[in-house]
Amino acid sequence: MKKTTNTKLTGRKATMNDSTPMRAHREILRLRAALLDFMEITEVSAQAPIRDPKYASEIRALGREIGYGALMAGAAAEWREIMRGKPNHPQGTEFSVGPCMAVLLDTRERARRALNP
């Protein structure tokens, strides 16, 4: 059975069949699964990093010399190059540089609120 409704945004008539609520439900489940994946994947990144006492002074010196962003982006690029073509290490499995901690924590909090209203 098809119903016709007038949509406020477009002013056009939209046709919805009886499966529309089921499609919406499936979409909500997919979005929820994506948010849960995001929360799991980013959990370790949201924790305070652990300083390696063996290399802390060298890392600090190099970061001050070339910039910490360049240090991290360069390290990720080198890691990718080293892993290229190695068996059991497909491209993309190396470390990646991501958003700043404030953005990450804010986005995780918004995802948490969306999952647990």
Oligomer kind: single chain
The Rg value, from CA coordinates, equals: 23 Å
Mean pLDDT, as a whole number? 83
Count the E strands: 2
* Unreliable segments of 5+ consecutive residues: none
Per DSSP, the total helix count is: 4
User: What separation lies between the terminal Cα atoms?
Assistant: 34 Å
Into how many domains do the coordinates divide? Answer: 2
Percent of residues in β-strands: 5-15%
Percent helix, as a range, is 55-70%
State the shape: elongated
Structural class: mainly alpha
Strand order of the main beta sheet, please?
1-2
Main sheet record:
2 strands, antiparallel
Q: Strand-and-helix sequence, N→C?
A: EEHHHH
SSE topology:
Blueprint lengths: L1 E5 L6 E5 L2 H23 L13 H11 L1 H16 L17 H15 L2
Antiparallel strand pairs: 1-2
Helix pairs in contact: 1-4, 2-3
Summarize the structure in words.
- Helix 1 (20-42) runs antiparallel to helix 4.
- The protein has 2 domains: 1-42; 53-117, no CATH class.
- The mean pLDDT is 83.
- Helix content is 56%, strand content 9%.
- The protein is mainly α and 117 residues long.
- The protein has a two-stranded antiparallel ribbon with strand order 1-2.
Quickly describe the structure.
A two-stranded antiparallel ribbon has the order 1-2. Helix content is 56%, strand content 9%.
Main features:
117 residues, mainly alpha, 2 domains, two-stranded antiparallel sheet, 2 strands
